[in-house]
Amino acid sequence: MLPQQGVVLSSSADGTDTLRNDDIESEQAYLTALYSRLDELREQAAERLRAILLEAGGTPQGRSQREATRSHWAEQVAQMNAVENGLCFGRLDFSAGNPRYIGRLGMFAEDRERDPLLIDWRAPAARPFYLATAVSPEGVTRRRHLRTRGRELTGIDDEVLDLDAGAGGREDVTGEAALLSALTAGRTGRMRDIVETIQAEQDEVIRSGLPGVLVVQGGPGTGKTAVALHRAAYLLYTYRAQLTKQGVLILGPNATFLRYISQVLPSLAETGVFLATLGDMFPGVTARASESPETAALKGRLDMLGVLERAVADRQTVPDDFVEVDHDGYPLRIERAVCEDARAAARRSGRPHNVARQMFVTEAVHALSLQIAERIGADPLGGDNLLEEADLAETRRELREDEDVQRALFELWPVLTPRQVLRDLLSDPDRLESAAPELSADERALLLRDRASRWTPADVPLLDELAELLGVDDTLKARAAARERRQAVEYAEGVLEIVEGSRSLDFEDESEEKDEILSALDVVSASAFVERHEVIDTRTAAERAAVDRTWVFGHVIVDEAQELSPMAWRLLMRRCPSRSMTVVGDVAQTSELSGTTTWDHVFEPYVEQRWRLTELTVNYRTPAEVMAVAADVLAAVDPSAPPPRSVRESGYLPWASRVSRDRLAAELIDAVRREAAAVPDGRVGVLVPAALEESLGDALTAAIPGAAVGEQPDLRDPVVLMTVRQAKGLEFDSVLVVQPGEIVAESPRGLSDLYVAVTRATRRLGVLHTADLPKVLAALA
Ligand SMILES: Nc1ncnc2c1ncn2[C@@H]1O[C@H](COP(=O)(O)OP(=O)(O)OP(=O)(O)O)[C@@H](O)[C@H]1O
């Protein structure tokens, strides 16, 4: 028996009788007028853009203004191109007043009144489109969904919201027919926007205010990802000035997932968002390598803080006895005691390692200068030292500039980079033992790896933490900037000389004119020339954030947030000191060992109880037949968690088939062929235990050439084989789960993995197994 019968959508939803010719004609005429207006506005914007591109020269300020105007018009043109499909998708009729048309963009008539022709879905005036119901109609008498293909109207679905007029729709969904058609459409391997059918509980989340931490907990298929993306678009629209400057970060679980969602925001005409995985959050590093879940979990623990602190402290060394350097022809000893004092003073400063280094050097040089003073300034008569303060200062300067001294001090307290420290630490058992005495030998063995290993996502929070511990010595940075500028000026001098040189050639036969003509150097100095040609930063906030580790975002959105480790949360919180965040996830789907199973634990250290929780309860993806199977798995993961209610039935019953081990690959290939034929317009997902990924992947690609496998399979291929971890957040029309028992056995969070696996299907679910089914799938036996 299926649960949740009460909410199941029927395919005979209202709207089928509304295709009246006169309505179609008048709505088509309105649509055509909207598109003409769009064309007009786009042409105007393109014209302005062309004009700006033709302008040249001017003062730096003028150029920078021009650049801002150029990017404004370029963005306008891009936005208008992006909304070409589905420009207008809805209409609201009210008991009084004019109807409102709702679409992907706001447009006004050109007349003096500037009447709204089309209302942006994010504007407050569009809200009743998502919220009005027959019981609470907010003055709306009819909600109309307009279905289009290109610029052509292909259908109309009406909902009459007047109880007296016999409204028969359901109260728990809005736009029933349009919703059903969106949910049953074949999947393409790219997520689509849901702007036409956002449901009331989702709308609440999308339009929630900007400040504070908002946690959206919801079962599989409740639209968390969709809501997170639409919220980004809503926030950028509502708080545009603030957020375009600071940028919005959306963090997703892996690169395949980012590609899956990559089309949604552009289709909503929003591009100013930095989409990243944890592995992208340290500029200069793209961390994609994999490692054992246990190693990743260990790296995610807060214990790593102490380990990293000690790893840095271990790099601040003192000699056993002394270091001898040659200074000015004389041997000079840097004694252990001197180093210890200098190190203690530098550590006491509480500054990060690279910044505190200045203090270490100053203290050491001071001690060495006294040593020299003793040698050369000692009064043979036993009186005070004969050197004056000015002499000592000069000695200190000489010591600082002495390359031998510099080298010796560098050895004792080197300038370090995060990558260097982490690489050294993880590839050296002695360093590990010294930095991590509280970890067991087995744990340290988990961390140990080859020096040449590639970075993993779990390394990134460690690199970021090290960047904080090491800091950047601003004096070094300033010196580098000064050097760059000096080089630019030298280059400019070169340019001006060439101009001068060619001028003398040009005019060598016209000596009387020569004095009349100003040379380049007469009107501009080399440094002014540099200023004029300094590159104006035209990058968006998202682009700048991608290369700046210390970038602070205006808002951070985290998807599949249950998977983040405590160390990863520290990194994210540093990127968002305002704590303006939207965190979406499902603690029943956690598969990372260092992920969370309660939100309280995550936020308590940062905002205590000051975070808001919203729950999404309706499952738009998984049909009721499949959800009935998943509910048993969920009950084993967390008996207290209610399964999300499916919004529809698919009419297909999930199945399981037991096969012999030696026939597994062959049976799988047959099943894939059958399923691919059953969803010809959609996608088949094959979810396997990690241990079988390679062998079954090989067998499948040999038999079915279009099948995608590997680390980053192309989801647009008709058949995709992957592990459950890779399938996080994704969906397929038909899903085949292979060897569920092995999926459960592979990880301590195996039951959660199985729950994820069985909730990926939008239509059909099948299970292939060689041993007994896990108890939680008994319903399929
Ligand atoms: N209001 C809606 N209208 C149309 N489709 C919707 C709506 N809400 C969700 N969907 C669709 O339901 C599917 C599941 O949504 P989504 O992937 O956002 O769920 P999720 O909660 O993130 O799931 P998971 O926890 O499994 O990752 C998607 O295909 C999405 O487009």
Explain the overall architecture.
The protein folds into 4 domains: 19-162, no CATH class; 203-286 and 552-615, 3-Layer(aba) Sandwich (Rossmann fold); 297-470, no CATH class; 624-780, P-loop containing nucleotide triphosphate hydrolases (Rossmann fold, 3-Layer(aba) Sandwich). Helix 13 crosses helix 14 (389-401) and helix 28 (664-678) packs across helix 29. The radius of gyration is 33 Å and the shape is globular. A hairpin with a 2-residue loop joins strand 10 and strand 11. It has 781 residues and is α/β, with parallel strands linked by helices. Adenosine-5'-triphosphate (ATP) is lined by residues 179, 182-183, 192, 194, 197-199, 202, 218, 220-226, 586, 589, 620-621, 729, 731, 759. Residues 1-21 are annotated as: Disordered. InterPro entries: DNA_helicase_UvrD/REP (IPR000212), P-loop_NTPase (IPR027417), UvrD-like_ATP-bd (IPR014016), UvrD-like_helicase_C (IPR027785). It comes from Couchioplanes caeruleus subsp. caeruleus.
Characteristic terms for this protein:
binds adenosine-5'-triphosphate, six-stranded mixed sheet, 32 helices, 781 residues, alpha/beta, globular, P-loop_NTPase, 22 strands, six-stranded parallel sheet, 4 domains, single chain, Rossmann fold
Strand order of the largest sheet: 3-4-2-1-5-6
The helicity comes to 40-55%
User: What ligands does this structure carry?
Assistant: adenosine-5'-triphosphate
**Strand fraction:** 5-15%
Question: How many strand units?
Answer: 22
Give the CA-based shape. Answer: globular
Low-confidence stretches: 1-18, 502-520
Radius of gyration: 33 Å
Q: How many discrete domains?
A: 4
Largest sheet: 6 strands, mixed
Distance between the termini: 15 Å
Counting H and I runs of at least 4 residues, what is the number of helices? 32
How does the helix and strand content classify structurally? alpha/beta
Look at the structure and give the mean pLDDT. 87
